[in-house]
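Handout, section B. The chain below has 888 residues.
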Amino acid sequence: MREIDMPGKYNPTAVEAGRYDKWVQEKRFKPSGNKKARPYSIVIPPPNVTGKLHLGHAWDTTLQDMIIRQKRMQGFDTLWLPGMDHAGIATQAKVEQRLAEDGISRYDLGREKFVEQVWDWKNEYAATIKSQWGKLGLSLDYDRERFTLDEGLSEAVRKVFVTLYEKGLIYRGEYIINWDPKARTALSDIEVIHQDDEGAFYHVQYPFVDKETTYQGKHYIEIATTRPETMFGDVAVAVHPSDERYKALVGKKVLVPLVNREVPIVADEYVDPKFGSGMVKITPAHDPNDFGVGNRHNLERINTMNEDATMNERAGKYVGMDRFDARKAMVADLEAGGWMLSVEPIVHAVGHSERTGVQVESRLSTQWFVKMKPLAEQALAMQKSDDRVDFYPPRFEGTFTRWMDDIHDWVISRQLWWGHQIPAWYHKETGEMYVGMEAPADAENWEQDSDVLDTWFSSALWPFSTMGWPDTDAEDFKRYFPTDTLVTGYDIIFFWVARMMFQSKEFTGRRPFKNVLIHGLIRDEQGRKMSKSLGNGIDPMDVIEKYGADALRWFLATGSTPGQDVRFSYTKMDSAWNFINKIWNASRYVLMNLSDDTKAELPADRTKLSLADQWILSRLNATIAAVTKNFDKFEFGEAGRALYNFIWNDFADWYIEMTKETLNGDDADAQTTVQSILAYVLDNTLRLLHPIMPFVTEAIWQEMPHEGETIVTATYPTVDETLANQQAETDFNSLIDLIKAVRTIRTEANAPMSTTIDVLIKTADENLQRIFKENEDYINRFVKPKNLQISADIIAPDLAMTQIISGAEIYVPLAELIDLDEEIARLQDEVKKFQGEVKRATGKLSNEKFVNNAPEQVVTAEREKLADWENKLQATQDRLRQLQDAKA
């Protein structure tokens, strides 16, 4: 046997050690530089530098790596560009949390020193993330690595801001925004997570100022609120103009309890007359809808809270109190003063900050906004053009469209210190505002806006800013933009995907990517989302340490269909490892049985190929076609199933076993042929597998006879029509069916391979007779018959086990082992099974819609199945009657 460096058991640690660093050092992941090749580019969704990568990142990047590795092998000029996101509020919150453990706040340090601390954090976690990319085997071009706060991207961000401002699409104004009191910053709508909280409707009396006025005999109206702490900002009560109940009250005034402020009752279309009493208090500085009512009625805006959600000087005696403490105190005072009518406990959806988790406040604030309607309309129009973005699965385009149809202006300013500082300056004396790419010439007389931009503002530019834009002559921009495929989760379609689409269309005139592949979320075995609170998170590095990167990648690649969630389980990881171990052992057998001069090439003379040789080559060809087709559709689960079935069943369990007879025989020419085919099939199989399992395929391939230095840049297999042989597949499958049938009989009769048996094969099909007789060596090896008969004239013994296959009946006389009653019962079950199949197929073929609308080949195949089931049913019924007669 040939000497190879492959131990008897797959060891992922040994296989993966040092291999990735070697690829990187040898620059295997860089674009080919072949200007004649079609470019194919992907930009990595930049992970936040807030911590380590989780399983979702591993899934996301594995899919991208599979795509780019396959395209690289197919001869594309591939670029997979890496990078990370500064992640504004998320990163700042992490650093502030770390400082708080030492009793330090960012205000103690000041802006400059605090930002230095954040850069230290970024450098620490960026190094960790890069090492994790390596563990996963990601084929990234590190020479092009970008960061959303690097110099080039900062220039792109300023360019976009200034351009949109000059077009009137960025403006500054006082509006109600979502406010995070812990991070002390504005949030966009999609950074707010709504969750059910316990609360209450507080029903409060608002007395009429005019003592003579009454409603339903009472000198007050009833107002229900969930947030009594905002009452100090009340400036009106509103009713619907068509609400007949309250028409006489419009224009009257009521007194706000505790505040003693007289406020008018106004009529406004905003009010829903069917909700509650049809009367609502109006607090323009603390509610977005009230803000609109206040504008229409020229009402005062009274902000009663500080940035940290404590009550300010407009809150009377409650000044300085936390908002929730103030609520309790005010409720107690309302009750003591006789104003509280009732308290009704409720559970309602309340907005919380995605990053800090605290309850969000609606707060009046001066912020920067992007006017979204024109940009959204452009992006929606793009989707009706040839330059559209194709979503996989297509249903997710609906998510994008719905959000863009119902778009609101985007608040882009954040009251943070970490991020892109807004390129606006205010004159220290005149208050004049200047917006530009650089600071004014007399910078000492100006003060830059202290706010930074929402982190999604810079990441929205990622596909083109990373390619050198705004320099439209940059080589990478001209060659690799628009990119080809974006891979991301469905949870950030509106956060990120939509924003990339409208920014790309606005600034480059093109789509940012051709395809967007949407995957789901990683969940635990019970289907729960992984979270710190549940303690069910899985570190991908721990999984790799135990099972290897290839096993994790196989599970992630084949665990679900596009758009669907996947459940992680260690049972599935065990299966993935077992599959790789099967590949390892099959490869080891092949390599040990090659000669020193074997090449992974087909024999020049294919006329001497055995049925098994022709079958495995045809099956390989079909597998290449299936895997390539499913990769193109991003159906990686289907591609994985095709590979698994071919490797485990066709190659390892059948063909390799078939070759042992030849390899241990005396026919040198036959041995040479089999060695070539084994090498050829294994070589192509490893190439097909490489995008999913880069490490183990490289390790095995290096032990093979091969051309080239690495499988990373080896040519990807293509379909060879000369190898397609449906007749060989049909014939060989008949042989497999025969062997399986006899094995089934042995199992049911408890007759091990050491027990001698006679095998009688009754078939009138001359082709089947030829196949079985020409392949008696295989039958003898796998069935171990004492006596083998193949004929159309066989008379079935009374006491025998029976199996029916397509075109043949198989009998094994086992008079001393068989229980006649059990065999009759088994055949009765078989009859029921075949009757069910005949009924199903008959029903399908009697359906006119199916027959008229299905492709002709599908209908033909169904008719062939029906004929086969009918033959099997007839043969089984005949045999059942024979045994019943014999017993009688």
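Note. The mean pLDDT is 92. Compare this with the example in section A.
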